[in-house]
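Continued from yesterday's entry.
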Amino acid sequence: MRTCTITISIVVHVIAVCAAVIAPLFATRAKVEPPRPDVPPLDVPHGIAAEPVIEPVDDHFRNDNGVIAIGDSSPIVTEATPPPPPAPPQRVVRVGGNIRPPQRVVDVAPTYPPLARAAGVEGVVILEAVIAEDGSVRDVRVLRSNPLLEAAALEAVRQWRFSPTLLNGEPVPVVMTVTVAFRLH
């Protein structure tokens, strides 16, 4: 009984596969090939109208130099004005050597995150901050941190203010490393 079922199953599958392969070969529709982009058509397709003719522009308003005169015959000068030169890049200096670190004049203590406090997490967050010419904290990026403490440290440091750092008597932006410590008491 089992051998008979397997034999019938194989025969039915072979017939189905043959029908799927052979049936398209006997299709009566003509095979339509897609147009090849490198070969132009040999005849004009039906239903395509000729393009409208565009009249040339009347040049009686142009003078001998090719400048168009409008109304009072004042010429329109279309010289391209060069863009202004780019501002010189502001050089950010790093604290160290002859560059003294700016003094913090506004200190905002970080708020200990409740989740970190409940978990008993302590540690430090090390940040790199760019102090602008006016002493505000312009950019801050994390160098090393505990994910539970990172947001609180960033929020506090962004509120700090520093004395301007002078280089040759001019205020300059300065890059410095900042460490924020979180300790449970």
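--- second protein ---
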Amino acid sequence: MRVDDLKSFLAGRWHISRRISDHRTSVAGRFSGEAAFTTVGDGLRYDESGSLRLGTCRQQATRTYMYVFDSPRRADVWFDDGGYFHSLELVEGRWRVRHVCADDIYDGAFRVLGDDAWTAVWRVTGPRKGYVLRTRYCRLSGESRHPP
């Protein structure tokens, strides 16, 4: 599925279901929660919160990004501390990206499943890292694809 207006596609609230597989420690985990893409200026702020279960650890977790749009089809994603993370374009329904952070490499693959669902898979490798995050986003019922 094509996404010609990325901001409209992402805007709103999403249910998140994430599987975590740490290959170095053989620990598996899950995250379940919500993400909200809210308009801030010309961009979107991404706020994620939910419950993380990783091995025997259970805790609440949050994450924030800023999406800055240089066209209707493309955004640059920034960490909340102002550092650049990656670009995102889903005009063909898929996107691959690589982020290098010191000795760690983050390979991301995004796929649109329909108007109300998409996935993100991150494979992370490095001297002390070796895990995969598989996330599915489903638009919460009642959320409009084109908010006011």
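The CA atoms of residues 23 and 130 lie 5 Å apart. Strands lie at 12-22, 27-40, 43-54, 57-71, 74-79, 84-89, 94-101, 104-114, 117-125, 130-139. Will compare against the first tomorrow.
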